[in-house]
Amino acid sequence: MTFRPELHVTAERGILEGPAGVIRLGGPEHRVWHMFYQYRPTPDGASRWGHDMSEGDPFSWFECNDAIAPTDGERHIRAGAVVGGAESDGGVDMYFTSRGPEGNTIQLARVDDVDALCEDLDEDLGEDLDGAALSAAVSRVGVVVGDGGGFTNFRSPCVIPGWSELDNRAGGHTGWLMLAVAGTTDDPQPVVLSSADGREWRVDGALEFDGDPGIDLDASLVAPRLIRLRDEVDGEIYDVLFITVERGGKDIASYIIGKLEGNRFHVVTPSQLFDYGHDFTRPRNTNYPRAAADDLQRYERAYIYGFMTNSGRAGDPTREPNWEAEGWANALTLPRRVTLQHGHLYQVPAPGLPEAVDLAQRALMWTGLCSIPAGSDIVAEVLDAAGEPAARITHDGQHIVLDRFDGEPKTAPLHDEDEDNITIIVDGSTLEVYAGGGSVAMSSRFWPAGGASGIRTRTDGDAEIFSEWRRGHAGTR
């Protein structure tokens, strides 16, 4: 038995600290996903970027050499963004946070040949002080954003293409836009920057809101992110601003719908919770190669990853049972295919998941299409190796309740127009639930004794399960 998931990204050893940057390359016939993640090989080691790659689907990960590690007095290498090269030559640009004795700067690393990132695994490469092999395919460009424009201590960059015309989102792209954090940790400030070439950056100003964002951006703010999606109802392309703040020792990830013009965000829909589970934080977008100016089809959907951790920034990930047993801590979520409908995000697992579960040795998946009248419910229990419930998911038509029997169940609201369906994925020590046609997602870590042996379901009252699908080798009940 192992707590390590098969389909979720984890660090082979050490403490995963979150997704650093994700890019998907190739066409429909051969897609390749590159996941760069921030981790520490040891609890007291320096943060750096690890790298995993998956071909065909975003579930079949194998570990490559580390991409970026501290050097020349750096203390940590922290998260950023990975984009199709600004030089449009097929390479990849990696924006990262460099933490040094004087504070943070945003730096750039370059990969001219992406395939080479995973072709040097058997070569005799140099190792850093923590004994991790570094890929020779990555070269440092240097600092691209340092103190200036009235701001200092830049960190956590998110980079996306800029618009050719701010008032014409169908007009294509020119240049690049960056959302970063500046200032002290006691007074973090989101800042908007722009660049024509991805190398020379201009500060446009601190992020401002036109309208109520619905959330306070206080000292607990970390890692804001920005994506774009076309609303399936009105056809307009909107900006989706992801905000992560710490409340009560836990990170809370929410999103705001609007339009960013310069450094001013015009709010259309105030803050909404992105994930209702116990352990979701720091959502990250997946980038693609730079599209042609008239190619805006990608805004029909986005693929989002999150960080699954049972502890906040002040917590101790070495208290996870898998740390003592297996020497690793924390995991990323499965990728979510995200769409925008009438100002609300809808999330479903990325295509290919049922087939990936079937190929895994221990993962489980159950999907049910249901009818749940008032006063009735559907109950699904994840069973441990002895056949005893290790977690319970209850769907009463109005709410989803995820209870891992720790005295703190999580509840997600549903609406009358939401579909009565539910999908449950169990993979090692990860548990993800999707419901209401994608209106609800819940991510939690749990540790069933001896591993999960099945998913048992029942109906109460007048609830019915019209059809169901069970996938996975460990067996479902």
Describe what you observe in this structure:
It is a single chain. The protein has 477 residues and is mostly beta strands. The chain has two domains: 14-349, Glycosyl hydrolase domain, family 43 (Tachylectin-2, Chain A, 5 Propeller); 359-471, Jelly Rolls. The chain has two helices and 33 strands. The protein has helices at residues 321-326, 353-359; strands spanning 14-25, 32-40, 48-55, 62-63, 76-84, 92-100, 103-111, 138-145, 155-165, 168-182, 189-195, 202-206, 208-210, 222-230, 237-247, 250-261, 264-273, 280-287, 302-308, 328-329, 331-332, 336-341, 344-349, 364-371, 377-383, 389-395, 399-403, 410-413, 421-427, 430-435, 440-445, 454-460, 464-471. The strands form six sheets. Strands 1, 2, 3, 4, 18, 19, 20, 21, 22 and 23 form a ten-stranded mixed β-sheet that branches. Strands 13-17-16-15-14 form a five-stranded mixed β-sheet, with no helix packed on it. Strands 31-30-29-24-33 form a five-stranded antiparallel β-sheet. The chain is globular. The two termini are 20 Å apart. The relative contact order is 0.13. The model has no long low-confidence stretch (mean pLDDT 89).
Key traits:
477 residues; Jelly Rolls; 33 strands; globular; 5-stranded mixed beta sheet; 10-stranded mixed beta sheet
Terminus-to-terminus distance: 20 Å
Global mean pLDDT: 89
- The total number of structural domains is 2
Name of the top-level CATH class of the largest domain? Mainly Beta
Query: What proportion of the residues is helical, as a percent range?
Result: under 10%
Radius of gyration: 22 Å
Q: How much strand?
A: over 45%
Class per helix and strand makeup: mainly beta
- Can you count the helices? 2
CATH fold label of the largest domain: Tachylectin-2, Chain A
What coarse outline follows from CA principal-axis ratios? globular
According to CATH, the homologous superfamily of the largest domain is Glycosyl hydrolase domain, family 43
Number of strands: 33
Please state the second-level CATH architecture of the largest domain: 5 Propeller
Which parts are unreliable, with pLDDT below 50 for 5 consecutive residues or more? none
